[in-house]
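Take a specimen:
=====
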Amino acid sequence: MEGVSNRLNLKDSFTDYAFIIVGILSINFALKGLLMPNHFFDGGITGLSILLHEKYHFDIDYTIVALNLPLVIVGYKLVGKKFFFKSLIAIILLGVCLRWLPVPELTHDKLIISAFGGFFIGLGVGFGMRGGCALDGIEVLAVYTGKRVGFTMSEIILGLNIIIFCIASIFFGLEKAFYSMLTYFVASRTIAYVVDGIQEFTGVTIISSKSEEVKAYLVLQMDKGITVYKGERGFMKGSFEVSTDCDIIYTVVTRLEVRRLKAAMHEIDPKAFIFSQSIKETAGGVLKRKAEH
């Protein structure tokens, strides 16, 4: 068992650092190939670093390391030692890449710069988070501040970014600030996509009086795994004392299968109660076994 555990830890560490390296290269590509040559900004610590670079001509590599380093230290207490060391290594490597790894200037098209600059920044930060580190420490700052002022993490991040974009608009004009907001929006959506999972599934819960037919269809026709909870249905306003036992059936399907499933449930039992919810990532079970084949 110890040998298996060591192999799993080694595999996880290799995967984590592969994510981190890809994230660093992606941020370096976005900053040096798109954003900085065209004086565009982003949100978070990265955006603040660019702002200081543009206004006071500080070296971006030193600036981004200097601003992130205190937050990485705070992360030691908030998250843990493993997060601290990964983030410290990642931030230093990012500074090294920004200093020594050249990237050619790619375009002057403002829409391309905003959209793809944000995409590659988000890709980099997202892969860093998948690897267990922070390549932009604003989330750490938000967690630390939120425990003291009572605001949510999202509210704090939004407030900090509003300040950054307002300063950018004062010094560099509204147009640059608006394009930078677009950059940040694309980056934040990309981070969510990378962190929450590449493949999105939908969890479907079905309550039907014809539960045996529903179970047979899901397992035999759609080749899905199911989980069955035992429940009660009834408790209507005019007959609150009346209830019957029922099966509550839960399954997970891909987004492309949702319409087929709902159409089939309507044929089996038009009165079935169905609700669904988005699942960003799954592990194990029937879905995983099928994916491996």
